[in-house]
Amino acid sequence: MYQKTVLPNGIRVVTEHLPHVRSVSLGVWFETGSRDETLEQRGYSHLIEHLAFKGTSKYTARDIAEIMDTSGGHLNAFTGKEHTCYYARILDEHFDQAADILREMLLCSSYDPAEIDKERGVILEEIKMYEDTPDEMVHDLFCEALWPEHALGRNILGDKPSIKRAGRDDLLHFVQTYYTTDRLVVAAAGHVEHQRVVDEVAAAFDSLQHQSPSNRVTPAAHGAETLKKTKDTEQVHLCIGGPGLARDDERKYALYILDTITGGGMSSRLFQELREERGLVYSTFSYHSSYADAGSFTLYAGFSPEHYQQVIDVIEAELLSLAREPISDDELHRAKSQLKGSLMLSLESTTNRMTRLARGEMNFGKLFGPDEIAAAVDAVTKDDLYGLAQDLFRMDRLCIAAIGPLNGI
Fold first, then answer.
1. What is the CATH code of the structural domain delimited by 226-404?
2. What pLDDT score was predicted for residue 207?
3. Which CATH architecture has domain 2-207?
4. Which value, to the nearest 10 degrees, does the dihedral of the CA atoms of residues 177, 180, 183, 187 take?
5. Catalytic residue numbers, as ranges
C-alpha cells in the first residue's frame, strides 16, 4: 500500500508496504545534482557522494562497511544531473541500523581533509578510467553537443582542475546550500510500516536547512552540432539524436513506445537493420533522458571506422521512415507489450519499487500505479507516434558525437 506524508519542514516521505517480503529498500533522495553546479564546482555532487562513506562522528568507514556486510545488506549511492540518492537494501530486522547509518552519513560526515585528499585521488583515477571507456564517454560528448555551455551538457564526474581545487569549506558550503529539506524525499519499499519511516526521519533531518536557491536555467534551442574526438580504439562509438521531451510532457508514454520501437530491444528497428540484416555492429540501442525542462533522444552504435557513413545513413533513414510512414499494428502491439512486461517484472524488486516511489514524488508529486501506466501505454495511438516522430526526428536538429579512430573521417 502506497502512503505519503509531508512533514512541516518540507520533507516528503513515501512508502509502499509489502508484507509478503522480508527485505526493505530505503532511499534518501535529494533533488540536487551536477546541474546545480557552477562551472567552478564541476564534480562537487559526485565528490560529496563519495565522502559520505568515509566516516562520521559515530561510524568509521570500516564500521559502515563491516556493519552492512555482517547484516547481509547493500549500501550504495549514485549522483545524477538533477538527483542524488543514498540507499540501503536490508532485511527488515536491520532497518533501524541502516536508517541510522544513512542519517549519520548525511548529517554527520566528518569531511576530514585527509579523507578528502584520498577520495580526490580516487575520483581522479575514476576520471582516467572513464576516459579509457569511449563507449561511456561518447554519451557525455553527445550531451555537450546537444547542450553546449549548459550544465546539462557536462559530465557528472567533473573535470580534473575542479576536483583538484575542491576544498573542505567549498564542499560544506555546497551541502549546506543544496542538501535542504525542501529538496529531500525519503522513500521506502518492503516489509516496513509507513509511520515507522516517518518517525525515523522527522526528528533526524530537521537539522538541515529548510530552503535552497535554484539557479537552474532552461537550455536554449539550437541547431545541429557535431563533436568528434580521435582516440586509438578498434571501434568508432557514435551517438546521434536531438532534443527530447521534458518530464511532465503529456506525450511521454508515446515517447516510451517510440524509443522501444526505435532501439529498445532485439526486435527494434535499429537492432534488426544494423546488426541482424547488415552485420555492421555488435551493440546498438536508443534511449531517452527527461529533465525538469528539457530532454534528449539518443541512438548509439559501435562499429568499425570503415562503416562510419553507412551506419549514419542507416540510422537517419530509419528515423526518417518513422517520421514519414505509419507504424504497423504488429509493431505497435509488440512495443506496448514489451513496455508493460518490463514494468511488471521490475516490480519484483524492492529497490525498483523504492526508486519508483521517489521518482514519482520528485517528478510528478504522486505515484502512478502499474495499472494506470499500462492504461496510458495502451491509449497511445499510431497517430500519436507519427506526430511525435515528426517533431523529434528532424534532420536539421540532429547532433552527432563520435569517439574513435576518426582520422580522415
1. 3.30.830.10
2. 87
3. 2-Layer Sandwich (3.30)
4. 140
5. 49
